[in-house]
């Protein structure tokens, strides 16, 4: 991959807006969670966007993270013994993480693109994906999540209700308040649309 020079004009403006979305407090929380979830052998990044990017760039830590949310027998991503050094292998490892995260339940709209992380184009999107993954892990509450449950918001869950046949029948005879009422309403004094008003003196 060729190194890119600085961007100018509109490109620079857009890139600077994207960079402003990156949350350093959120970075701290995500690093804490990843270290608790994967173990201290993953190390810690240097503070800031660049340190966070370099830490996650080869995809190994991300793969360990998504694997830690599954039981021992069914790890979705193969983690190499030696971190990949070739660019396409690193990108492939990140792509495997994204596929596993999607299978875990992260929606496509919450997913980052491989270049967002690899080229540092949008690290706020990377944070968004990790937040969505953490929220799902807390919501599932299947014993694989490690860390403070208050770090992530629980996702809304379906709450099914079962009504008996009698309750359903009774409901058919109730007029909801949203439908209003026709008591007291009349059309007295109204004329048809478009007809002139009759004034008799």
TrEMBL record:
Gene3D superfamilies referenced in this protein's UniProt entry, alphabetically: Calponin-like domain (1.10.418.10)
UniProt subcellular location: Cytoplasm
Keyword field contains rRNA-binding: no
Record's keyword terms, sorted: Acetylation, Cytoplasm, Muscle protein
One of the GO BP terms on file: epithelial cell differentiation
Keyword match Disulfide bond: no
The protein's name: Transgelin
Organism (species): Ornithorhynchus anatinus
Organism lineage: Eukaryota, Metazoa, Chordata, Craniata, Vertebrata
Recorded name of the encoding gene: TAGLN
